[in-house]
Design brief:
Helices cover 40% and strands 22% of the residues. It has 5 helices and 5 strands; from the N terminus they run αβαβαβαββα. Helix 2 runs parallel beside helix 5. One of its GO terms (cellular component) is cell envelope.
Length: 122
């Protein structure tokens, strides 16, 4: 059990992904690099998986080096957290400020890093 409120940093990325999602896996090295660089400055990430099989999910976490908190109910598209965020496709990222308010969505690559740096500077 993970509480989003307890997991909030200065800036939090809620990252919806799955082991079977090619575009998600392609973006993971970028997210790993951002996390390694900015976690000590207040960035937190919570990965929410839309996987069905725990072994494939945990294998992808290990293989891609995703060292942050991960959650999944292993319910594929019926993932209740994804429903709360109205996720209809993945990858889907939501950037939250320290209060938990969504301040940006679905940024990738350099745009994601730039937004995180901007928010951490506040």
């Amino acid at each position: 059990m993970v509480s989003l409120k307890e997991s909030l940093g200065k800036v939090t990325i809620v990252d919806f992904w799955a082991s079977w999602c090619g575009p998600c896996r392609k973006e993971n090295p970028n997210v790993v690099a951002i996390y390694k660089e900015l976690h000590s400055k207040g960035l937190n990430i919570i990965g929410v998986s839309l996987d069905k099989e725990k072994s494939k999910w945990t294998e992808a976490i290990a293989k891609d080096g995703l060292t942050w908190t991960h959650v999944s109910n292993l319910k594929f598209w019926d993932e209740p957290i994804a429903a709360q965020y109205h996720v209809e496709s993945i990858p889907a990222t939501f950037i939250l400020d320290a209060s938990g308010k969504v301040v940006a969505q679905d940024l990738r690559g350099p745009e994601l890093k730039a937004k995180i740096i901007e928010l951490l500077a506040k």
